[in-house]
Amino acid sequence: MAKKAKQKLDSGFETIEGSISKTEQFIEKYQKQLTIAAVAILVVIGLIFAYKKFIIEPQNEEAQEQVYVAQQYFERDSFNLALNGDGDFPGFLSIIDEYGSSKVAELSYLYAGICYFKLGEFDNAIEYLSDFSTSDAVLTAISEGTLGDSYVELNNFEKAADYYQKAADASDNKLTTPIFLMKLGRVYEELGSNEKAKVAYERIKKDYRDTEEGRSIDKFITRVNLK
């Protein structure tokens, strides 16, 4: 038994040595290519770091300085000036064009979409809001909800319902969620989908009873029950 075990162990060592030998042969054969590949990886990593450090970060800082006036116009409901600038300071559209890789430019898509909605340019609103993306749940809800509003204005209630549902599900909070659930219910009523409307209304009653929408929700539930 000991002899067989020794033979098995020796065989195992031979297999390992053979594998090591093959690996060494592979490295020797392709040493130049492997070295080039390793250097290339390091160069790419260095370029990514340099791009973030010397291009993205300065762009973010400069864009933040430039966007301030546009945000002020937005807060004052001067949506055309917020979009296009005033001649001295850029609007959101210029921020997007000039600082497209920055976080400020990304947020400007949301601002621009809302501006276009407020100006009644619903197709443009949809275009810019569709290009907006963020990991922030509340901003996502606002974007999806404004897309829903835009499709309502275009009488596309099916699309509106889809976006109101996304807006309601994007963030669980008392500020935006009951608003978009209410809009979702109203759109479903417009589509004749009263059971779906009831689901939206009952979610408000269950989870957001102490909000403005929640305090008046019983009449909406009663209405769909009578249809």
Labels describing this entry:
12 helices; 81% helix; 227 residues; mainly alpha; Serine Threonine Protein Phosphatase 5, Tetratricopeptide repeat
Describe the structure.
The chain is built from twelve helices and no strands. Helix 5 packs parallel to helix 7, helix 7 packs antiparallel against helix 8 and helix 10 runs antiparallel to helix 12. The protein has two domains: 97 residues, no CATH class; 94 residues, Serine Threonine Protein Phosphatase 5, Tetratricopeptide repeat (Alpha Horseshoe). With 227 residues, it is mostly helical.
The secondary structure category is: mainly alpha
Instruction: Estimate the global geometry from the Cα principal axes.
Output: elongated
Number of beta strands: 0
How many domain regions? 2
Number of helices: 12
* Biggest sheet features: none
Q: What are the segments in which pLDDT stays under 50 over at least 5 consecutive residues?
A: 1-18, 42-55
**Beta fraction:** under 5%
What number is the mean pLDDT? 82
Bin the helical content: over 70%
Order of helices and strands: HHHHHHHHHHHH
Q: What is the end-to-end distance?
A: 87 Å
User: Rg, please?
Assistant: 29 Å
